[in-house]
Specification:
five-stranded antiparallel beta sheet; globular; alpha+beta; about 15% strand; 11 strands; two-stranded antiparallel sheet
């Protein structure tokens, strides 16, 4: 008998036998339609030839699927999600206000030796901010650029303002240690030494789940973060696999052979979904894969 015909039996065994000893449970078994859809999704992933991590959870808690969810990937621009959370965290603490001004500069310290490095506008998805060097922008304006158009310059300005240690502390407090923020963007010396921001699908899931439930900072801050994430400009991944008009609050990440998307999907049965993809040279292929995974999960759980 082929193994996939035995999937319901295997999943049930996983829940009832392994769970009492604290091993990883198989939440997909709680939703038979999701359990039935998983083999086809895994076939899609295998056929793509990519290295993929997926974390999926409905907000009602009735369905969850984790696939290579603890494998670290280069975080690319998904590391901007914890920067977003920490900005609102420090506002709640009274350390800053979103309308505080910050001088725009293009000089940052390398994690390796403290030497100065600059960002190349040609490697950034947003270039207007580089024309504002010496001027000021509010923290809210920089946050909008960081998330909606994935500005690397805005990210480094905010990260320097907030502090890496503070960001890491907040990530830890949200039990999302799979997200490992070490440094700002485009620190070539650090990159050459393998000192990169990394994430797991589970880590990103924890952060977005906290935002979705109003627990990342507080309900009002979470609501505002969702509104910012909903204004995301790059929508060829998760949103492309959903029915037209479905609200999605998400953040993408993209560098060479890396393409991620992670978001909160406000479907009739809302869910959080993280898809991390490594190894595909053409972003059209990775976007198609992410949209296909999203589509199959949506159909199985709505």
């Amino acid at each position: 008998m082929k193994w996939w015909f035995r999937l319901p039996t295997l999943l049930s065994w996983c829940v009832f036998v392994l769970a009492p000893w604290g091993f990883a449970r198989c939440p997909a078994a709680e939703d038979p339609r999701l359990a039935a859809a998983i083999p086809a999704i895994q076939v899609s992933i295998r056929r793509s030839g990519a290295d993929v991590g997926v974390a999926f959870r409905t907000l009602d808690g009735g369905a969850e699927w984790l696939f290579r969810a603890d494998k670290p990937f280069h975080a690319a621009s998904t590391m901007k999600v914890p920067v977003l959370i920490e900005l609102f965290h420090q506002r709640q603490q009274g350390k800053l206000a979103l309308d505080d001004p910050l001088r725009v500069k293009n000089e940052f310290r390398s994690l390796v030796d403290g030497s100065i490095y600059t960002l190349d506008p040609g490697d950034d998805s947003e270039t207007d901010l580089y024309k504002a060097l010496g001027e000021t922008r509010t923290l809210a304006q920089l946050c909008e650029l960081m998330i909606t158009v994935s500005s690397n310059l805005a990210t480094n300005l905010l990260l320097e303002k907030l502090g890496v240690d503070a960001i890491r502390g907040t990530v830890h407090s949200l039990r999302a240690d799979g997200m490992n923020v070490l440094r700002g963007v485009e620190d070539d010396k650090a990159f050459q030494q393998g000192l990169n921001n990394t994430t797991t699908a589970r880590g990103l899931l924890q952060l977005l789940d906290a935002i979705a439930r109003g627990q990342a900072v507080d309900p009002e801050s979470s609501r505002q973060m969702i509104e910012i994430l909903e204004r995301q400009s790059f929508n060829d991944g998760i949103p492309a696999g959903l029915p037209a008009g479905t609200r999605v609050a998400h953040k993408t990440g993209e560098i060479t052979r890396i393409h991620h998307d992670a978001g909160i999907v406000f479907a009739p049965r809302p869910f959080v979904l993280v898809i991390l993809v490594h190894g595909l040279a053409d972003t059209k292929d990775s976007a198609t894969l992410m949209a296909d995974i999203t589509r199959q999960l949506y159909r199985a759980t709505q």
